[in-house]
Model the fold of this input.
Amino acid sequence: MQKNMEEQTPPAKILLAKTALDGHWRGINVVGRALRDAGFEIILVGMAQAEEIVNAALTEDVDLIGLNMGGRIEVVERILEQLAAAELDVPVFAGGTISPKNCRLLAEKGIETFPPGSSLHDIVAAAERLTKGTF
Amino acid sequence: MTRQTSSGIPLKPVYTATDLPADHLPETVPGSAPFTRGAYPGMYRTKPWRIFQLSGYGNPEDERERIKFLLEHGETGFIMEHDRNTADHLYNVDHPEVVARHEDVGLSGAVILGVRDYETILDGIPIEQYYCHPGGAVVQHGPFALACYWTVAQRRNLDLKKLAGTGQSDFFLTYLGCITKQQVPARVGLRFNCDIIEHCAQHMPRWVPVSIAAYNGADTGLNAFQELGALFANAVEYLDVVKARGNLDLAQLAQGIGGVNFRVSMDFFEDICKLRAARKMWHRLLTERYGITDERALRLRIHVVTAGSAMTYQQPLNNIARGTLMALASVLGGVQSLGVSGYDEAISIPSEHAHQMSVRIQQILQHETNITAVADPLGGSYFIESLTAELEERAWDFFNQIQDEGGFINTLDSGWLHQHASQNQIEQEMALWDGRKSVVGVNMAQESIEPLEINGHEPVEGVWENAMARLETIKRSRDQKAASQALRDLEQACRTDKNIMPVMGTAVAADVTLGEIGDVFREVFGDWNPPIQL
Done:
């Protein structure tokens, strides 16, 4: 019965993007692998601008957006603004080098953050929670 | 329970004389071949290791202040960090990719558009007195950075033949660990590096023209023996190409590139043995493969950066202990130069206090512990000698695998090296979460009474706007005819097999900017096609 249901439902799609012009890929590789192993479909768009992220999220019809931060919070805020402007109601979570202060600022905007040392189990659990009901 | 090193070498509970390798020579001393025990006889009695920290951010003036701060607090060489958005990509600040995230500009290094910005940063710093890394860690940025630095030196009437430092020009950084949006193909990078090597041999003989930074491979996931094997596979590319060009004496070439960069992380003894094995391997490579006998070439000089990835986000003050242990391992391994990652490494570039702490850790080791009195104090230890030999054997095996794959550059182009790094990344992460590996504050001892919240370095506002204004000023006030001619000459040199460094010197002296040089490279060489998707 369970198996049958899985076959009928396509996996939830997660878009993973890097907000900065910083190509360190270790974090996104490890997180992307864990999410894939947990059954998600992963769309990688690399070092993408706000507009490119919004377009990819629309085109791919994703259920969740994961932002790999390597820079300042203003760049992430621009992405959130453009998502809102496009009336894209997709949840966003973020990982990477995010200071405790910026984690709080993002939490106020409803963004869960996963700074270095976060457990992959917690990241996968968050992805499952945030995509619940979307597939 | 079985125990092993972080690269998977099995460890016995105790070692005895029967574990000593067959080629162990008990009477060998540091400073003599094969240099396993150290590059120089007196080691730190003769010359303390250089305190050499990555530094810089914001506007050129901010970078200068941080460098001066570090020098005043005990640093004995200095490093100029460049803004990643612009420098790594050879983009000016008005490039659309930079404009789209302009708040990030200056976050991890100063924006340096041309020789005028170099002059601003170096103003008041007597560069002839210091070993300097003036930028150019990224291969395609190397020629520009070196030419800007020597132009500043020429304008101060300094003798370039006495100038000491390194530009690095490292493949492990942007072709393996931190892949840029756009850069020249790796083979073109190899040509640039060989041009730099030949140019420096003639004009700047004390300069380390390229410094292979296997650190960047290790922090991307390569284990200890892979880091060693890949570093020497890279060295072989330089040696073979420059040898084939036939302009340089091989010993002089080998001496030039024999200043390298390793990572030391938290596997204390394995990391010590890695540095010992490196010196032995360099000696063997040069003598056996190239027939070099000049002792100055056979001594491998080592700079270590302690592992940034070992610094935890959680309970960041614990990183002071980690930095100390990694620095101690580096010193017991016989480094010539050392940079200790900041305790706030997982959050940002170092705050002023974290930076000072990295210097203080080194000063405490140099002045309070008496460990500088005796060279290679661990030499002769059954365990150390055995592990050194084991690492060497596995490293040669990895080196040979790279040769079978067509050489180091091919393994970057094909993604072979990335695959190895990726496998290790996953494995290291799994070990952390299934409890095989413990990290305090991360997967154990998570409760803490932190006395203060560490938020790292506070970014400077307005860096991009200031750089836009400087760019406009440069273009308005320079001799446009000279700049245009220099760009045409650079393009011409790129299209032939001429050494690009002389025309690069003319170009930067004519106020040609970073992004314009990048445009020429992109036009002539096109882009490298990364073997992995980010």
Observations:
- The CA atoms of residues 8 and 35 of chain A lie 20 Å apart.
